[in-house]
């Protein structure tokens, strides 16, 4: 993984989890602990993080925002391009499902602009609010326990609600993609919701920016070979695209 991609991964992880150990980051990034320490030095000098014994933490001044609000500003242009591409796989009258993520939030913005008749199932309060402003889009929001940091609904009642529906297309966000380890994420509750949407959908597309490829996360949520394709941004490495296409995994992105 290139240095800039490592720095993005570390920053993204710390903004979501606040702390990280050098050993953990070394395993996730497949680099030596010494390389991780040098990366942490760079980030500390930029003022984004604070190094502590054995690892790093997010500076306290940055923790006042929710995890979701922080991640919204990361790779925003790439997420907008992903959203534009994702809309090519939607047609009027479709029933769409989207789990909570900043990438899916951008897709919701595009759906609200481009379509006049849709039904959307989501566990994200932010996505529901965006789409709810369009009176021609029916929004289905499950009940359940609110996870404040992500502004989403989780739990058994949420999953039970999702299982009632037949979904045309599911846009699934992930924290890591690997040919060997599959599709991965960090939150157990979110992973359960993803799988419920996945199991009830005809078409399944992963939506993830280029930094998620060949990265790993704590939980395996599915097999990368069982989705219709991965929608990403144009910064994806041609070598990675070739590697995945050779395994019959389709990569979609705009030419911008």
TrEMBL record:
The answer to whether UniProt assigns keyword Iron to this entry is no
Gene3D superfamilies hit by this protein = 3.40.50.1360
Molecular function as annotated in GO:
DNA binding; DNA-binding transcription factor activity
Keyword Transcription recorded: yes
UniProt keywords (A-Z) are: DNA-binding, Transcription, Transcription regulation
Cross-referenced InterPro entries: Carb_Metab_HTH_regulators (IPR050313), DeoR-like_C (IPR014036), DeoR_HTH (IPR001034), NagB/RpiA_transferase-like (IPR037171), Tscrpt_reg_HTH_DeoR_CS (IPR018356), WH_DNA-bd_sf (IPR036390)
- Where do the HTH deoR-type domain residues begin and end? 3-58
Spell out the PANTHER family in the cross-references: AGA OPERON TRANSCRIPTIONAL REPRESSOR-RELATED (PTHR30363:SF44), HTH-TYPE TRANSCRIPTIONAL REGULATOR SRLR-RELATED (PTHR30363)
Protein's recorded name = DeoR/GlpR transcriptional regulator
Q: Which organism is it from?
A: Oceanobacillus zhaokaii
């Amino acid at each position: 993984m290139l240095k800039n991609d490592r720095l993005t991964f570390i920053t993204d992880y710390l903004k979501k989890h606040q702390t990280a150990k050098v050993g953990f980051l070394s395993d996730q990034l497949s680099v030596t602990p010494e390389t991780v320490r040098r990366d942490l030095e760079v980030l500390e000098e930029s003022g984004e993080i604070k190094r502590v014994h054995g690892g790093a933490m997010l500076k306290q001044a940055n923790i006042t925002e929710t995890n979701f609000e922080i991640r919204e500003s990361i790779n925003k242009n790439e997420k907008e391009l992903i959203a534009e591409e994702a809309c090519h796989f939607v047609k009027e009258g479709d029933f769409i499902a989207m789990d909570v993520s900043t990438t899916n939030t951008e897709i919701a913005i595009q759906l609200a602009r481009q379509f006049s008749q849709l039904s959307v199932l989501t566990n994200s309060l932010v996505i529901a609010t965006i789409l709810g402003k369009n009176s021609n889009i029916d929004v289905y929001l499950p009940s359940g326990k609110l996870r404040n940091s992500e502004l989403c609904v989780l739990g058994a009642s949420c999953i039970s609600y999702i299982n009632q529906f037949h979904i045309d297309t599911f846009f699934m966000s992930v924290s890591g993609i690997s040919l060997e380890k599959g599709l991965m994420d960090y939150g157990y509750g979110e992973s359960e919701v993803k799988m419920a949407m996945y199991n009830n959908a005809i078409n399944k597309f992963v939506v993830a920016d280029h930094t998620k490829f060949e990265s790993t996360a704590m939980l395996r949520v599915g097999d990368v070979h069982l989705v219709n394709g991965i929608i990403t941004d144009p910064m994806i490495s041609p070598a990675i695209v070739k590697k995945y296409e050779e395994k019959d995994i389709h990569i979609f992105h705009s030419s911008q």
